[in-house]
């Protein structure tokens, strides 16, 4: 869900402050299937912003009109909701007239609050897409063949260029362009790029579904002659490697479906569509483009004015009709990628001759923009790397066979500026060779590319290690958002591994507004499910890995639960519930014994740290240690998750079956894996964490297991972790659950091996794939990964910062604010922007006094746990709290705390004697 599509100021008559409603249309796309809920009933949400305490919605009224003038006049010809009494302000389903394809809908809302009735908001808009297959009037075009200079074995394929001229004879009322450019496209009209997206559209399994992008191009079309230009890159469509058909899923040569619908002011209509009247060529300046290997651009072959009217295209080929990809056509609702930040080099080191090493100071994903002046035909080669060798040269061994090289050939016409269109790299360093003249910091710019999603939090604390981990993680997460969550941006992999994101997606949600991305990814997983129920380890299934295990495919359930917790969206659970149930039945039928043990696991606790960094020197981390303990524990956990989903989605009839199966698995698990000495399995940290976190321990054994778990961390590990991907997902929660939050804090702030702080101490500016990333063999050793973040940022925000959504009133409708003070931590200042607005928690301990400033968004409440010792009193805004203050709904003293139920607003608490 994209937040803050429009911001509208209006007055609350009974307030002395201005309030604001941010209108946002959530999942407003019209899908191909006209019977789906989202197709018939797009959902609308708004955000109320006001400083008054206890501000709460009591009712709303929505108008939806087919024309801005009608909306301004108060005519909701598509829908007038009337006054609807509810405090719900998110995911309000449209209930108006049936919506046709390619129609603009204009809407506004006013809110009845406990402080008075607002004025109508300003207008917002959504558009319906092309709902039906037959709404696409054109046909797919392309060149389904190699050209003489191309090489399939080397995955070298040039960009395809297509153009079409047309005339606009009358005044245009509206014009909307729809495009499916596969694998990647760049669209222009009259020589000007349409939109600011890059590497679009979002990748999918194109045999299952294809995303189309939509653009309002009304302003670009005046009366006269025009030209459409489309460049097609390879992306994931023409796979980066063509030599392993058994593994790599490739979909063919790039192809295009395009439709421009023009509505004139006289009511007539014209459609410009892809057909064989278009012209095309592959003999343009982009000679090859490949996500792994880079892009080669020969400026000598530029075709000046090729995407403008009047260009001589006689030498171009007639566009050829090609086979359609096969997938259903869907409006893309997750954000496209953009260039989100530019970086100036921190150092440029001349290596002799015309060769330089450029240091951007930050590991990132994207590309560089180059400025260069030289002779025609000169080549500048850019090679990318994450780190340097001891001799100062770039280190590329960990890229495997990814060439990660861009080549620019000059045209020799003064200062030339270039950046690639259809590739990206994971890097900090660039080797520049063949550069004419002296390379300066003004000549090369790093461009960070990731999905156009907002950063929704801030975090600062009194602990420098925690703060730097937050910063490094931000860069790692951003680098690996590429229309899907990928594992790494640099080597010949870059795959959407499910196992990397189990609880990590939850952690990420506290940093980025990632709900649309992960909603799209749930669809990718559902589409990848086999008819028998199997779910792959990678989705979309660009690699054909269906290994059948609980932990990797089980991310499907965990991401769905995360989205529900953070947003309160019930619809996505209803959508995916059948597929989840089918997968669990598949795993039960295929791999569960009569004793309730799930026998299939593929990876075990992937990438457990070696005992020491030196012990792991040169060791390849690609080692699998399957564990029936892990697979059985996870099956039990998923039964608990499904029982929750049953209740939420109205599938209560399944709950009894899940409960009975869960009990069987629990009994079998304890019988097989529990040892009377008080530990599970091989007594690893992960083996004991899972039954603790999944609440599988018999009550009589709980204290022994808890004590043993703490002993492993505190004594055996000397305050360090010893978990791989699976255990790290539950590490902070597990230690906090057993009352060892202090131990969790100590582990999170370690600077010695193995820890995130150790990575920082050894120069990391993002997050390593391996705990011993400075010593491990390079084959599997990314320096920009997220899988080891686990549940860390859930813990940061829910426990350190005290910002957590109530499990019963999800989506931050009710916020639980219960700070944990531990170790040397004396202050945390954090914000998180939820669907309802910004939640703020800023606490600090100064001497014997505790200060806490909080902000609770309008239309929500919070349960605030103030730490109070015997003899201490609580003040708010300098006055003793009695429970009668405005906004404080109730007070309740408990041991060590004063619990306040509060409404929205800003509060300033002080606890002192």
Automatic annotation (TrEMBL):
It catalyses: Hydrolysis of terminal non-reducing alpha-L-rhamnose residues in alpha-L-rhamnosides. It comes from Filimonas effusa. Keywords: Hydrolase. Its EC number is 3.2.1.40. Residues 170-340 form the Bacterial alpha-L-rhamnosidase N-terminal domain. The keyword Hydrolase applies. Residues 351-450 form the Alpha-L-rhamnosidase concanavalin-like domain. This is alpha-L-rhamnosidase. It holds the Pfam family Ig_Rha78A_N. GO terms for molecular function: alpha-L-rhamnosidase activity. GO terms for biological process: carbohydrate metabolic process.
């Amino acid at each position: 869900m994209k937040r803050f599509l429009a911001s509208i100021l209006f007055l609350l008559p009974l307030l002395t402050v201005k309030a604001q409603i941010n209108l946002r249309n959530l999942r407003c796309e019209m899908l191909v299937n006209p019977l789906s809920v989202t197709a018939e009933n797009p959902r609308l949400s708004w955000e109320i912003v006001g400083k008054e305490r206890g501000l709460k919605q009591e009712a709303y009224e929505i108008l939806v009109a087919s024309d801005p003038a009608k909306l301004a006049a108060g005519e909701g010809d598509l829908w007038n909701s009337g006054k609807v009494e509810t405090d719900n302000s998110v995911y309000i389903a449209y209930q108006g007239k049936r919506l046709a394809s390619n129609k603009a809908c204009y809407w506004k809302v006013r809110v009845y609050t406990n402080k008075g009735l607002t004025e109508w908001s300003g207008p917002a808009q959504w558009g319906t897409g092309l709902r039906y297959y037959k709404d696409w009037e054109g046909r797919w075009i392309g060149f389904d063949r190699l050209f003489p200079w191309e090489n399939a074995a080397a995955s070298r394929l040039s960009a395809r260029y297509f153009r079409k001229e047309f005339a606009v004879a009358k005044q245009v009322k509206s014009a909307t362009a729809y495009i499916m450019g596969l694998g990647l496209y760049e669209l222009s009209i009259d020589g000007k790029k349409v939109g600011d997206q890059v590497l679009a559209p979002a990748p999918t399994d194109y045999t299952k579904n294809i995303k189309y992008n939509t653009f309002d191009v009304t302003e670009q079309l005046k009366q006269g002659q025009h030209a459409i230009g489309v460049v097609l890159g390879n992306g994931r469509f023409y796979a980066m490697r063509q030599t392993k058909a058994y593994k790599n899923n490739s979909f063919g040569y790039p192809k295009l479906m395009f439709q421009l619908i023009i509505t004139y002011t006289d009511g007539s209509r014209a459609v410009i569509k892809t057909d064989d009247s278009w012209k095309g060529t592959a003999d343009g300046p982009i000679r090859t483009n490949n996500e792994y290997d880079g892009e080669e651009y020969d400026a000598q072959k530029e075709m000046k004015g090729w995407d403008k009217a009047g260009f001589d295209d006689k030498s171009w080929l007639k566009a050829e009709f090609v086979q359609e990809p096969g997938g259903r056509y869907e409006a893309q609702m997750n954000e496209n990628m953009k260039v989100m930040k530019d970086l100036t080099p921190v150092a440029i080191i001349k290596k002799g001759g015309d060769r330089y090493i450029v240091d951007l100071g930050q590991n990132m994903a994207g590309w560089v923009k180059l400025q260069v002046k030289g002779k025609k035909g000169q080549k500048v080669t850019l090679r990318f790397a994450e780190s340097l060798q001891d001799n100062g040269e770039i280190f590329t061994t960990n890229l495997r066979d990814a060439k990660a090289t861009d080549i620019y050939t000059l045209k020799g016409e003064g200062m030339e500026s270039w950046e690639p269109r259809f590739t990206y790299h994971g890097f900090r360093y660039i080797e520049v060779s063949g550069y004419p003249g002296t390379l300066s910091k003004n000549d090369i710019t790093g461009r960070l590319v990731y999905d156009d999603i907002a950063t929704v939090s801030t975090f600062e604390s009194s602990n420098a290690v925690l703060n730097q981990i937050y910063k490094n993680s931000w860069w790692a997460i951003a680098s690996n958002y590429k229309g899907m969550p990928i594992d790494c941006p640099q080597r010949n992999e870059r795959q959407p591994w499910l196992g990397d994101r189990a609880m990590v997606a939850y952690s990420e949600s506290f940093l980025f507004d990632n709900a649309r991305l992960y909603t799209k990814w749930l669809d990718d997983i559902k589409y990848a499910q086999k008819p028998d129920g199997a779910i792959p380890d990678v989705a979309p299934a660009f690699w054909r890995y269906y290994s059948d295990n609980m932990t990797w495919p089980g991310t499907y359930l965990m991401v769905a639960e995360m989205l529900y917790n953070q947003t309160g969206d019930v619809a996505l659970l209803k959508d995916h519930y059948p597929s989840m149930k089918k997968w669990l039945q598949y795993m039960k039928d295929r791999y569960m014994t009569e004793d309730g043990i799930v026998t299939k696991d593929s990876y075990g606790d992937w990438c457990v740290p070696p005992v020491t960094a030196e012990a792991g020197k040169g060791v390849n981390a690609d080692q699998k240690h399957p564990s029936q303990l892990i697979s059985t524990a996870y099956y039990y956990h998923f039964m608990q998750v499904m029982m929750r989903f049953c209740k939420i989605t109205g599938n209560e009839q399944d709950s009894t079956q899940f409960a009975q199966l869960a009990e069987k698995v629990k009994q079998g698990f304890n019988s097989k894996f529990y040892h009377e000495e008080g530990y599970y399995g091989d007594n690893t940290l992960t083996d004991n964490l899972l039954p603790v976190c999944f609440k599988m321990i018999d009550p009589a054994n709980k204290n022994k297991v808890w004590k043993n778990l703490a002993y492993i961390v505190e004594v055996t590990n000397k305050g360090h972790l010893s978990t791989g991907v699976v255990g790290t997902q539950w590490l902070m929660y597990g230690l906090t659950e057993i009352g060892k939050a202090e131990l969790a804090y100590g582990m999170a702030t370690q600077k010695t091996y193995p820890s995130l702080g150790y990575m920082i101490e050894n120069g990391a500016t993002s997050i390593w794939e391996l705990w011993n990333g400075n010593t491990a063999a390079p084959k599997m050793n990314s320096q920009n990964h997220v899988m080891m973040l686990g549940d860390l940022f859930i813990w940061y925000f829910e426990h350190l910062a005290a910002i957590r959504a109530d499990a019963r009133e999800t989506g931050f409708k009710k916020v639980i604010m219960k700070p944990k003070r531990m170790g040397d931590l004396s202050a945390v200042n954090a914000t998180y922007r939820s669907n309802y607005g910004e939640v703020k928690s800023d606490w600090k301990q100064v001497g014997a006094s505790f200060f806490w400033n909080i902000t609770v968004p309008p239309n929500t409440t919070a349960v605030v746990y103030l730490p109070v010792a015997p003899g201490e009193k609580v003040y708010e805004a300098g006055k003793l709290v009695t429970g009668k203050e405005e906004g404080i709904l109730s007070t309740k003293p408990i041991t060590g705390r004063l619990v306040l139920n509060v409404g929205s607003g800003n509060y300033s608490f002080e606890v002192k004697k």
